[in-house]
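Give me C-alpha cells for this 290-residue protein.
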Amino acid sequence: MTLHNDALRDHACLIVHGPDKPGIVAAVSALITRNKGNIVQLDQYSDNADGGAFFQRVVFHRADLAAAMPDIEVDLVQTVGAMGLEWQLTDQSVPKRMAILASTSDHCLLELLWRHRRGELPVTIPMVISNHNNVAEDVRSFGVPFFHVPSQGPDKSAAEARILELVQGNVDFVVLARYMQIISEGFLDEVGVPVINIHHSFLPAFIGAAPYRKAKERGVKLIGATSHYVTKDLDEGPIIEQDVARVDHSMSAADLQARGAYVERAVLSRAVQWHAEDRVIRHGNHTIVF
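Here you go.
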C-alpha cells in the first residue's frame, strides 16, 4: 500500500548492500538508534551467509529528518561505508520525479496517470513525451505537460537529443509506457537515471510485429508481461516484476491482446511503485525486491 506524503513526513528509507559479514544488522540498527530514529520497517536478505551478498531495506522515523540527514549521512560513511557496504538514504516524503515516454498505444500511459491522480503512486510526473500526438489531449486532461518529439527513420539521434534536453536534471527516472522505439546505448549513458520498460512476455518467442496473432496461431495457453530496467542489451535488463494470465482456444488474437494489455498495465504499475518506494535493489543482472 502506498502512503501519502503527509504520512511519510520524517520517514527515511535506508538501502544497504554488499558483502555479507557478521554485525551488519547490529551496526545499522545502532546507527539509526544513536541518530534518534525509530525503525518502522525492516527487510533483509543474504544469498549466501558464507561469503555471499547482503541486502537490507530499512524505513525509520526521525523527527526533523531533513535537518538530521547530513549528520546521518556522515555517520553512514564512517560506519556502513567503512564496512565495505554501499548505501542509499532517501527522504520518503519527497516523491520521485517520473518522466513517461509513450507512442500510439495508451493503456500503460493512462494507467500510470490514473493511479498517480488517485494518489497510488508516490511520484510527480513533470512530463509525458511521445513520438505521436494522439495521446496529447488525454495527457493534458490530467494536468501533465505533453511534449511531442517525432522519431522517424533509422537515425534517432535528433529525437534522443531533444528528449535528453527535456529530462536531464528534471527527473529521477524514466518509464517507457509502450514507447515503441529502441533506446540507444548512448542515450542510456547520458540520461543518468534508471529507465524502466514494459513488454509482453512472448519475447523473444514472438519477436517483431503482431505477436498476439503469432501467439494465437501457436495456441498459447499463457500470456503475460515483464517490466525491467533498460540496459544496452535489448530486453535483457534486470527484471522488476512479471505476471501471467490464462488464455484458451476460444479467444481471438484481439482477445489475447486485450487481456495482455490488462496484465501489462498491472505489471508496469507495480514496478513503478516499487521503484518509487526504493524497494528494488539491482544486483548484477537481477533484482531483489522487498
